[in-house]
Structures are given as structure tokens and as C-alpha cells.
Design a protein that fits this description.
The complex is a heterodimer of chains A (about 325) and B (about 375). Chain A is α/β, with parallel strands linked by helices. Chain A has one domain: TIM Barrel (Alpha-Beta Barrel), CATH 3.20.20. Helices cover about 40% and strands about 20% of the residues of chain A. Chain A contains 10 helices and 10 strands. In chain A, the strands form 2 sheets. Chain A has a 7-stranded parallel beta sheet with strand order 1-10-9-8-7-6-4. In chain A, strands 2-3-5 form a 3-stranded mixed beta sheet. In chain A, helix 5 runs parallel beside helix 7. Chain A starts with a strand and ends with a helix. Chain B is of the alpha/beta class and about 375 residues long. In chain B, the strands form 3 sheets. Chain B has a 7-stranded parallel beta sheet with strand order 1-12-11-10-9-8-6. Chain B has a 3-stranded mixed beta sheet with strand order 3-4-7. The radius of gyration of chain B is 21 Å and the shape is globular. Classes of the chains: A alpha/beta (about 325), B alpha/beta (about 375). At the A-B interface, helix 1, strand 3 and helix 10 of A face strand 3, strand 4, strand 7 and helix 7 of B.
Chain lengths: ~325, ~375
């Protein structure tokens, strides 16, 4: 029996008010407490939006995260933050981590960036960069090799995940893996990353997902079918769904809602595409998701797209 | 012909009196006005002393800001000038305020707490009115040097916008990449033909002889470079003016070989930002200019306005450093007559004090380079 659900796959956009609050905080015009109060208001609102949309897992909005890599980069010894670099093909930039020596953990990596207590028990979705994405987007001045860094990162983040799971309970862990599909990697690297992903997620009881976005998911197939994860997620603005149907994927997240364009997708058009896929394949678990983070949109449109997930999921459930 | 002519790229931070008017800004205005030789300065100062400004006063202030910008570059000694974009908001929102078929949605993050106001094309665009004409006519009436007017290119306006119209046409395609590529091509060409080209025609009819098209977004999707080139060519087809293409903070290798198809006379690029500050005319000291190999190889007929001034630092490039950068660029390119002395980009992020000293040294450095070449 096919199970159909939905969730988002990344950060929500900050409101104009919150962006201005961050500016004031940087200029020391408001305190951390004042900033945190505003963040908390937005967390509560976005958790409510996702709950109303009936999403299976719920993110806290990731409003504290300036970019996907920053919380990790700021809290690992042996990593410094450098200048701006383009975030893939977006008009958005991240601060490049510089790995200066072997990395180690300072303390809790994520505690100042997450708000799991606002989310209903068992539904919290935690998102982290996969080992390859973090290491490949950093500048390596440590003299260590790729495999050494991948596994060191995986070990440190695994400790963090296990601790967070004990403390808060996690519904789903998503590894965001744009670098794995941005260009086609060689087989050896893909297998190496698979081992690092396994290391990063070992002893984690939550549902484990890896999401490939900003690139063609076919770049990592069939190799990722062997990754020790429960769900594979794809960006269908970059991946041909019918070509994806050539692979047997038991639990799949279809990133069919464009996270980088404001057009609200026509439900009928989406249904037609998904139906075409389901006529060829019968996964056990199907998730409807945005293609990537919704932070590239305005808050209003991001909320609309969240509700759209519910409309698509409901329509699909009626058909299947 | 003069070797290493000097030119700017576009923006300058706001004139002192466009910020909050205080005694300090009035003093700054007076000092800059006298230094730059701005005419009718007393009239401006009397407006600044008013308790409340009328709408007409505000308009006059913007005209003065434009005049200050022109005199700023002229006084520093540049050969080709603009007014520092004193009358513009910025390069994206300003043009799109004059476009029908476009709707602003709200702010989106660029990084950390930096954002811009982004919108969507919801229909085929139509130009409400040429949005740079009045600005150009004013500059033309005041400038004592040659004028180059910058405007944002079609590709960048498309790339920085959402698409709620064109993509619908391709929703039946199975290949999402092809669907997006075709939609982007349609959108960019419409913007080129319906927005950019009419603007350029109106400017040229009004006497513009140099047009700079800014396309900072082009290499973010390298596979779309041909779309930018096609749109650029449609924007300037049959136009009798010197066309400069300005692209900054990009991987310039992605432009090749396509840029050879571009109907342009000059390309303006940022190099100083990726260079060392040491003197010298060898590869080790001048890594910022390595890309000139490509221009020599693929497009030797195109002038290269090489950035010899880094606009993202308060470091004042000594004239000798400017000299060495130009001499090296000339050597690398192989044809010194194709090298223009330029800033990396607009000077918007620098104070007027810093920007002015940088521009003075741009001019001095070019003179030093010229002497050696002669």
C-alpha cells in the first residue's frame, strides 16, 4: 500500500522585519535576547503553518542559519570562516569555511541554532549538510586528504545527532547534498561518500533521508541506492522524473514544487506528472516536497507553497 | 590615439547632502563643492539650510547630486565619466519600476542580513517609459568629458527575477532543465527587445555615444551564457554607439568561446580584486590579469577595460601599482591600444574621500604607464 506524505526540505525565508532585526543585532543596536524573541515568533508561526498543512515532519525554519554550512563551520575547532562565495547557481552567497587543521568538536554544534522544543514530539526534522557537501564547499588548508576529512566530519556530526536524538527526539534527519549532484563525481568518490554518510547516521533511529538538489539526481544513480538511508530526495527542477522512474527506489521524495520560483504550481499539472511516474513505479513511500530550501522565496510565497504540499498530497491520496 | 584612457564603471556612494542633512553634511557639501568646482554652490547650500524641503527642492538636490558625481570624476581627471548613478535606487529595482508585466513580491536574502526586493514577470513585459533618458539628458548637458551611460542588461534582469509567465508554456515537457532553459531564453529575449533595446534607442537618439550594459549575473549559470550573448546582440543590433559589456566578480573563463559572438566594442572586467598589491609586471605579481590570455586568444578585437582599482577595499592603489597592472595587462593582451584603465566595478561601497584618492591614482598610474610605453 502506497503511503503519501509531505514535508519541506530546507530553510524558510526570514521576513523583512527579521532581516532588519539581524542587521540591528550585527550593529549592536539590539541584544541577543531581543533578536531571539523575534526569531522565536517566526519559528512559532512557521511551525504552525507546517502543522496546518499536515506535514509529516516539521522544521523550525532554520532562521538562525545564515547559510547551510555556517552553524557547523562556526562550531568546529580547526575551521575558520572566510569571505563570500556563490551558493551554486543562485544570487545568494555563503561564507566559505576554511579548514586549517584536523577538525574537532568545541561543544554542542547546533544548540544555539535549533528550536526543537517548539515542534510537536516526534515530528522534528533536522537538516545538516552531508559530509561531501560540507568538505567540498570548504577550502582545505589542513593538508589532510578528502577521505580523512569526510570521516572526521561524519564522526563529529554523528555524536551531535545521537545526543540531539536522546535529548529531543528527531522524526527525520535530512542530509542536504547539493554538491553530490552539482557535477558528476567518479564512482570511487560516490562510494566513499556513502561510507561517510553511513558513519554520520549510525545509531540514529529517526528516518534518514538524503536530498539531492541544484543538480541532476541521475548523476548519483545507481550508486546512492546502496547508501544506508531510508529516503532519497530529488530536485525535479533539475532531474527528469521519467528517467528517475528507471530506478527502483522504495522511499522517494519528489521535489516537484519549485523552491526557487514564485509561480504556484498548478495542482493538476503536478498530479499528471506524479501519476505518470506512479504508473511506471510503485514505491512504498512517496513524499511530495519542494525542490530545495524555500528561503529563495518571499515568506508569503513560501507559506503558500507549504500549503500547496497539502493540496497535492490530499489529491494524490484520493487517486491512490 | 591615447593609450590607457581612463573611465569609471558606474556607481558612487550618495552625495553628502542626499544623506540626512546636518551641519556636518552641509560642511562636507561645501568642502566637496569647492574642491570639485561645482557651479552655483550657493544655491545648493541655501536649499540645505531650509527647515523643510519642497518636492521641487528635492528634485534640485538630485540634480546637484548628479552634478557633483560628474565633477567628481572629471576633477579626478578621468576621460570618460558618468554621474555615479546618483538618481538611481539600484540596478535591479530601478529599471523594473518602469516595466508592465512585472510585479514586485518582496525582499529575499542575498547573504546574512543583505537582501534585495525581488519580483516576477507575470506577463510579456512592456516598457512604460525609457527610464534613463532624463538622467542622461541632464548628464549630457553638464558633462565636460565623454559620457558613458550604464544600464542593467536583459539577462541579469531575467536571472534575478522569478518567472510566473514563460515557464507555464513548457510545463508539459518531461525534461525540467530544457523547460527552464527555453523559458529563460524567451524571457530574456523579450526583456532585451521590449525593455532594453527601446531604452538604448532613446538614449542614442538623445545623443548617447557610449552605452555600458551590466551583466553581473551571467556566469552564475554558465550554460546560459549563449542566452545572454543573444539578448545582448538583440539589444544593440544596428545601434550606432560604442558598446561596453561590464561583468564583475565572475569566472570569466565561462564566457569563452561565446563572447566572440557578442556585438560589443569593449568588455569591462574586475581584476584588481584578485591581484596582489606588490609592484611588478610578471605572472607571479599579477595573477589578477591572467584572464587576458583568453581575450587575446578569442577576441583580440575587443577592448578590455581592466579593473586596476579594487572597489571593495579602502587601500589606495599607488600610481606605480596602477602603472604595473596596466603594463602587464598590455603585455598579456599583446595590443596595448586595447587596454583601458578602469575600476573593478562601481565605487558605491567606498567613501567619497577614498574613492576620490583611488580615482586620482587611476589617472596618475595611467599617465606613468603611458610614459613608459612612449
Amino acid at each position: 500500500m502506497l503511503e503519501i506524505n509531505g514535508f519541506v526540505t530546507g530553510a524558510y525565508p526570514r521576513s523583512e522585519e527579521l532581516i532588519k532585526a539581524f542587521r540591528k543585532y550585527f550593529k549592536k543596536e539590539i541584544s541577543r535576547e531581543e533578536l531571539k524573541k523575534k526569531i522565536l515568533d517566526e519559528v512559532k508561526e512557521i511551525v504552525e503553518v507546517q502543522s496546518t498543512a499536515g506535514l509529516k515532519y516539521i522544521v523550525d525554519g532554520m532562521f538562525e542559519w545564515h547559510d547551510l554550512l555556517r552553524p557547523v563551520a562556526e562550531n568546529l575547532s580547526g575551521v575558520e570562516i572566510n569571505g563570500l562565495a556563490r551558493w551554486f547557481d543562485n544570487n545568494t552567497f555563503y561564507k566559505k569555511p576554511i579548514i586549517t587543521r584536523n577538525i574537532s568538536s568545541k561543544d554542542s554544534i547546533l544548540k544555539d541554532y535549533i528550536y526543537p522544543e517548539i515542534i510537536p514530539p516526534g515530528k522534528w526534522k533536522l537538516i545538516l549538510p552531508d559530509p561531501y557537501t560540507f568538505i567540498s564547499l570548504s577550502e582545505n588548508r589542513s593538508g589532510l586528504k578528502l577521505d580523512q576529512l569526510l570521516f572526521r566530519y561524519a564522526e563529529l556530526l554523528n555524536e551531535e545527532l545521537v545526543e540531539l536524538e536522546i535529548e529531543y527526539g528527531i522524526g527525520q534527519v535530512q542530509l542536504s547534498a547539493p554538491s553530490l549532484v552539482w557535477s558528476k563525481l567518479d564512482e570511487d568518490t560516490l562510494y566513499l561518500v556513502g561510507d561517510a554518510v553511513e558513519e554520520m547516521l549510525k545509531n540514529v533511529k529517526a528516518e534518514k533521508m538524503i536530498h539531492f538538489f541544484f543538480g541532476d539526481g541521475l548523476n548519483v544513480l545507481p550508486h546512492v541506492l546502496e547508501y544506508k538511508v531510508d529516503v532519497l530526495g530529488f530536485d525535479l527542477t533539475r532531474t527528469n522524473l521519467m528517467k528517475l522512474a528507471e530506478y527502483d527506489i522504495e522511499s522517494i521524495a519528489l521535489g516537484i514544487i519549485d523552491g526557487r520560483n514564485s509561480l504556484i504550481e498548478d495542482v493538476e499539472v503536478v498530479l499528471k506528472k506524479v501519476e505518470k511516474y506512479l504508473n511506471k513505479k510503485e514505491p512504498r513511500l512517496l513524499y511530495i516536497t519542494p525542490s530545495c530550501d524555500l528561503e529563495f522565496l518571499t515568506p508569503e510565497i513560501a507559506r503558500e507553497k507549504t500549503i500547496l504540499i497539502k493540496r497535492i498530497v490530499n489529491a494524490l491520496r484520493e487517486i491512490f | 590615439m591615447k593609450l590607457f584612457p581612463t573611465q569609471e564603471v558606474g556607481s558612487l556612494s550618495r552625495a553628502p547632502f542626499l544623506k540626512k542633512i546636518t551641519l556636518k553634511t552641509i560642511e562636507e557639501t561645501k568642502a566637496w563643492g569647492e574642491k570639485l568646482g561645482v557651479e552655483d554652490l550657493d544655491r545648493l547650500l541655501s536649499i540645505l539650510e531650509k527647515e523643510k524641503l519642497t518636492e521641487e527642492d528635492t528634485k534640485i538636490l538630485y540634480d546637484y547630486a548628479s552634478l557633483f558625481g560628474i565633477r567628481f570624476f572629471e576633477s579626478a581627471g578621468l576621460d570618460v565619466v558618468w554621474d555615479g548613478e546618483q538618481k538611481r535606487i539600484e540596478m535591479y529595482e530601478h529599471p523594473l519600476r518602469y516595466v508592465k508585466g512585472f510585479k514586485f513580491h518582496g525582499v529575499v536574502k542575498v547573504w546574512d542580513a543583505e537582501f534585495y526586493r525581488k519580483g516576477a514577470f507575470i506577463d510579456r513585459p512592456e516598457l512604460i517609459k525609457p527610464y534613463h533618458l532624463e538622467e542622461f539628458l541632464f548628464v549630457k548637458s553638464k558633462a565636460r568629458r565623454e559620457v558613458k551611460i550604464p544600464l542593467t542588461g536583459a539577462y541579469t534582469l531575467a536571472e534575478w527575477s522569478f518567472d510566473e509567465y514563460y515557464i507555464k508554456k513548457y510545463s508539459d515537457l518531461d525534461d525540467p532543465v530544457e523547460a527552464r532553459l527555453r523559458a529563460k531564453e524567451d524571457m530574456t529575449i523579450d526583456i532585451a527587445e521590449k525593455i532594453i533595446r527601446p531604452n538604448i534607442i532613446s538614449l542614442v537618439e538623445a545623443g548617447a555615444k557610449r552605452i555600458q550594459i551590466d551583466e553581473p549575473a551571467v556566469t552564475s549559470k554558465p550554460w546560459e551564457v549563449p542566452i545572454m550573448i543573444d539578448a545582448l546582440n538583440r539589444s544593440v543590433k544596428g545601434i550606432n554607439a560604442k558598446i561596453t559589456l561590464h561583468i564583475c566578480y565572475s569566472d570569466y573563463t565561462k564566457l569563452f568561446p561565446h563572447i566572440a559572438e557578442a556585438k560589443i566594442h569593449q568588455v569591462s572586467i574586475e581584476c584588481a580584486n584578485r591581484d596582489t598589491r606588490e609592484l611588478g609586471v610578471n605572472d607571479e605579481k599579477r595573477p589578477g590579469y591572467a584572464i587576458l590570455d583568453y581575450f587575446r586568444e578569442y577576441t583580440p578585437w575587443i577592448e578590455v577595460a581592466t579593473g586596476v582599482i579594487d572597489v571593495h577595499t579602502d587601500f589606495i592603489e599607488p600610481p606605480e601599482l596602477v602603472r604595473d597592472r596596466l603594463l602587464y595587462a598590455a603585455k598579456k593582451h599583446g595590443d596595448p591600444s586595447k587596454i583601458i584603465a578602469c575600476n573593478d566595478c562601481g565605487l558605491r561601497t567606498r567613501s567619497w574621500e577614498v574613492a576620490y584618492r583611488k580615482e586620482e591614482n587611476l589617472v596618475r598610474g595611467a599617465e606613468l604607464a603611458r610614459k613608459i610605453m612612449s
